[in-house]
Design brief:
By secondary structure, this protein is of the alpha+beta class. The protein is 33% helix and 22% strand. It contains twelve helices and 21 strands. The termini are far apart. The relative contact order is 0.16. It binds flavin-adenine dinucleotide. Flavin-adenine dinucleotide binds next to helix 1, strand 2, strand 8 and helix 8.
């Protein structure tokens, strides 16, 4: 295999870190260019303000992270991450009722986004061929003389004495992982290329979150509480996600006197412009309006540790880099820069992990010069990695009444109807619930929900319901 010299990643948040890890298997040198200076402990930073929100990492994502960084899960648990059996320890209220609870091997860890990023950065920094260029903002892309490929980036270093000074950095592969606000489409346009076509699905979802110290004497039979929205009927939802305990300033998580000291990230969500408020009274009133009083009751006994943070721009946006026929080679986009997902479904970090795996597999079989002709093929592979998550997120968001551009085909109406039947079955059928969880955690494709056993249960359930209605004279 031909030697691959230098890969450059724009943005060192989760997608950039995971892609950096996978490229380290194949390139002599990987440079991750990050605008921020990283904090030296798990803490929020300017470029990732959303780290204050719950970040659930799906099981497929957890598996990939463990492959990339063996022992990571154990390290996180030692730092205070919580182990959760997702079928036994999660109280999940569907539109049809609480799901059945039973022990399973679908075992997750939950922790803050800050702890996860910090641990991954720490592990990646031990790779001798990975370099972090912190405090450096990429300002544009560079092409070769023939105008056929991207060969580098222009950047500005924050510490530079002359504010306008620009440096150029060259590489064989450039990866945009600069997130939702990526300027890559504008950078491509400035070079005379077409920007990628975009698809947006916006259900106008608002999201607020706050960290709490749970009450010391709390006695509940769950670790994680999940009351998702269920549009179109239920456009409000909420959740409690346990995370590692706090640790005082200057102390690292592992030095914390009691790592079992769990905190909660409590989040509230509203679709169809029903944005949850950020004031104390409004937050509690919204929590009380959920279809179960449990969330409001327990937070009334808990101690708030932070202000209430809001994130109101939760649209889904797909940049179709895979559809560009005349676009420069040796340039790709990953993470939210390529596929922005409504974060309330908790899939984006797992998608980033799947994209990193895709790159790993691609470079096991391709030399760097293959990108001259195969960049589009690589982009198509990356598009496959986010397709399933995109369909799930937009499928649910289209169920809100006022989401623009809603498809109204018989097929979408059937999927919507089928979804409602599944929610009802999950209340007492552990096997159906388990398959649903495997799909949710991106362990199985959503087609698994249409396997013969589940299809037959849906038909049987529907038949029984109809029969009951006939008996009591409703039909
Ligand atoms: C409110 C909220 C909640 C979420 N909850 C979940 C969840 O539960 N589960 C889940 O899987 N995902 C969740 N996500 C998604 C997740 O946080 C990430 O956004 C996602 O994994 C994509 O990350 P990213 O690395 O592509 O982008 P980002 O995390 O947005 O990072 C982009 C990085 O690029 C840097 N950067 C930007 N421009 C430049 C530049 N020009 N030069 C150099 N550096 C630059 C930024 O400083 C930043 O570090 C949530 C997102 C939000 C907003």
């Amino acid at each position: 295999m031909q030697h691959k010299k230098h890969a450059l990643v724009i943005g060192g948040s989760l997608a950039g870190l995971l892609v950096g890890r996978s490229l380290a298997n194949h390139f002599e040198r990987v440079t991750i260019v990050e605008r921020d200076i990283y904090p030296d402990q798990p803490a929020p930073r300017k470029g990732v303000p959303h780290s204050r929100f719950p970040h659930s990492l799906m099981l497929r994502g957890q598996q990939i992270l463990e492959q990339f960084f063996p022992g990571l899960r154990a390290e996180l648990v030692a730092e205070g991450a919580i182990e959760v059996d997702s079928m036994k320890d999660m109280a999940f209220l569907t539109s049809a009722g609480w799901t059945t609870r039973c022990s399973s091997d679908l075992r997750l860890f939950t922790c803050s986004r800050d702890l996860l990023d910090w641990r991954i950065r720490h592990r990646l920094a031990t790779f001798p061929n990975v370099q972090f260029l912190q405090g450096a903002s990429v300002t544009g892309l560079l092409t070769d003389a023939e105008h056929t490929k991207i060969v580098g980036v222009s950047l500005h270093r924050r510490a530079s004495s002359t504010p306008q000074s620009t440096e150029e950095l060259y590489a064989d592969l450039i990866v945009d992982a600069s997130g939702k606000a990526s300027h890559a489409p504008q950078w491509l346009s400035a070079l005379g290329y077409d920007p990628p076509p975009e698809t947006e699905v916006n259900a106008f979802v608002g999201y607020v979150a706050r960290i709490y110290q749970p009450p010391a004497d709390l006695s509940v039979d769950w670790k994680l509480l999940f009351v998702p929205t269920a549009p179109p009927q239920r456009q409000r939802g909420g959740a409690i996600l346990p995370i590692e305990g706090d640790f005082s300033e200057g102390e690292t998580a592992s030095q914390c006197s009691d790592p079992r000291n769990t905190r909660w990230i409590v989040s509230l969500v509203g679709g169809n412009r029903d944005y949850p408020p950020t004031d104390e009274a409004g937050f509690l009133a919204f929590a009380r309006s959920l279809p179960t009083p449990i969330l409001a009751e327990v937070i009334e006994q808990a101690t708030p540790l932070t202000p209430i943070y809001a994130y109101y721009g939760n649209e889904n946006r797909l940049r179709h880099y895979d559809q560009l026929s005349d676009s420069p080679a040796h340039f790709i986009a990953v993470g939210h820069a390529a596929c922005l997902l409504n974060p309330t479904y908790g899939q984006a970090m797992t998608v980033a992990a799947l994209e990193a795996m895709t790159l790993d597999q691609f470079f096991q079989h391709h030399a760097i010069d293959d990108l001259n002709h195969h960049t589009r093929h690589l982009r198509q592979q990356l598009a496959k990695a986010h397709r399933e998550a995109w369909l799930v997120a937009t499928g649910v968001d289209y169920r809100y009444r006022n989401t623009p551009g809603k498809p109204i085909s018989a097929a979408t109406r059937f999927v919507s109807w089928y979804w409602d039947q599944l929610m009802e079955l999950m209340v007492d059928q552990a096997r159906v619930y388990r398959t649903f969880m495997e799909v949710l955690h991106l362990l199985k494709p959503s087609i698994a929900l249409f396997q013969p056993y589940i299809l037959s249960q849906v038909v049987w359930h529907r038949f029984n319901k109809r029969l009951r209605r006939l008996r009591i004279g409703l039909d």
